[in-house]
Amino acid sequence: MTLTTLLYFKLAKELPIFIYLFRKSEATTLTVKELQQLLKPEFSESGSNARMYKGDVYSAFIKYVREAASKSKIISTIDYMH
To answer: For the whole model, what pTM was predicted?
Structure first.
């Protein structure tokens, strides 16, 4: 065992609530809307080339996030069915 592992064991023994940090729960799920609120873009002034480029990149990112979120829902539904 490494020192780090021993530290985790000691923490878990002395602070049982510590274990809850590693349990999966619905509270740890980040929705697309929450992600958009966390990552608010700061665009350049309107009409500039930088603004257009940043807008294109941001819209591609949002499309990717939505697609990834929809695929994870499909995968979790399939896993649930099996």
So the answer is: 0.51
Sign of the alpha-carbon torsion through 18, 23, 27, 30: positive
pLDDT > 70? residue 74? no
Q: What is the CA radius of gyration of the chain?
A: 20
Q: What is the largest CA-CA distance in the chain?
A: 59
Tell me the backbone φ, ψ of residue 30, rounded to 5 degrees: -105, 120
Alpha carbon distance 65, 61 (integer Å):
6
pLDDT higher than 50, residue 77: no
CA distances from 17 to 11, 49, 70 (A): 9, 51, 33
Q: Residue 44 has which token pair?
A: 């350049």
